[in-house]
Amino acid sequence: MKKLILVGLILFGIYAQAQNKKWTLEECLKHALDNNISIKQSELDLEVAEIEKLSALGNFVPSLNASIGVNENTGLSFNPVTNNAQTTTFLSSTGRINIGYTIFDGLRNFRRMQRADISKLANQYRLNKMKDDISLFVANGYLQVILNKANLEVLKSQNSVTKEQIAQTKELVDAGVLPDGDLLEIKATDASEQQGIVNAENQVTISLISLAQILLIKDYENFDIEEEGYGIVDTLGDTSIDDILESAKENRSEIKIAEQNLELAKKDLQIAKGANLPTLSAFFGYDTRYTDNVSFEQRIDPDNPSVTRQIGTVEGTGEAVVSEFPNTTTVEIGPEKFIDQLYTNDGIAYGFSLNIPFLNGFNTKASVKRSKVDVERSKYLLEQAELDLESTVYQAYVDAKGALKSYEAANKAVESQELAYEYAKARYDEGLTNAFDFSQAKLRYDNSRINQNRAKYDYIFRLKVLELFFGIPATELKF
């Protein structure tokens, strides 16, 4: 019984721990990379590229085919062994083995193998880009939850101060030091803050649900994150925009994808041009046959090997002209043994085949021109990708610098509003200002702290975007 109780307590502890689990950013990123549907689809695209490579490799392997057929013929049919027409019923069987190999096809098979390698590399870059995008999306959702929680803590903290002020004001009103209007004003402020707390709690819940949906976690009620230990970690330092841009061009998947697409277009052009060259192939075939049909053979009678027959008369005398002929009889011969027929009736065929293209309705010419257009289009897309990346990096750099300035300004605003709030609080405690002025000072201080939180996490996100462009993997970003 004690053992059962102990096991129950252990299981309950494990369950309670699971219910109270708080996800870290690293755990969220890993879970998203392992379970995100878009990433899984990109991984399937990579598998398809592997299959294309296998198919391209198969073009270098000879083709080998074997066939066998069994027939029963009734009536007038051609004997597959003697090739004579016979009216009878017989069973026949044929077997064939054919081997074919393309010796030269304008290097198209070789180009297809190269294309398969390029396609695989392009799909790998697409997968990497998808992982970066998802990681950044998760990080943004994670920071949004932290921001909402931080704002909620600000509102709760200041509301606790308001409640203390209510108690203190009530004592002063009861003592006749302050008018009743001051108490009503403080209570109105408390009611407004309570409403703000409810809205902030809803924002926390909504952001948690949004993050859980990104992670494909369905247990919304028990999902929570670890909001401690995340601050501003600038791994770039004084890195210049030129260094960031150069690193982005070397490492970002957008450029690599466009480069590989250009290589694919060039390879397609080479394949299209290969159709203008002759194709040389070799073949080898082996076949054999069997039939159970009987045959007939003319044989000389050993007892009477020849007979004399008149073949004409001598003109004028009428004397008969005779000659000896073989004395033959028709003998029925049964089918040979199955194995013997396979050896007796087999045959081989081998040779080469040269196909020289001259005119095919301008299909090859049109395919080459179409491939040239695709090459030019891919060049423009690569150029556009470089321009877009440059613009995006500069925008991210400006956003990060602007977010830093906004955060620094928010810090100064908090310091100023905190001093103003402390001053207003002291004057209110001494009865030198009314409750409305005190509430306004407190509201400005609360808003400055909320703006500080928003500026802080906006700067963190902008900084991580910039670090991602610099080439730091999404899973190695420091917060």
TrEMBL record:
Residues 1-18 form the signal peptide. It is found in: Cell outer membrane. It comes from the Bacteria. The keyword Heme does not apply. One of its GO terms (cellular component) is efflux pump complex. GO terms for molecular function: efflux transmembrane transporter activity; porin activity. Residues 241-275 form a coiled coil. Keywords: Cell outer membrane, Coiled coil, Membrane, Signal, Transmembrane, Transmembrane beta strand, Transport. The keyword RNA-binding does not apply. Transmembrane segments: none annotated. Belongs to the outer membrane factor (OMF) (TC 1.B.17) family. PANTHER family: OUTER MEMBRANE PROTEIN TOLC. This is Transporter. It comes from Winogradskyella aurantia. The lineage of its organism: Bacteria, Pseudomonadati, Bacteroidota, Flavobacteriia, Flavobacteriales.
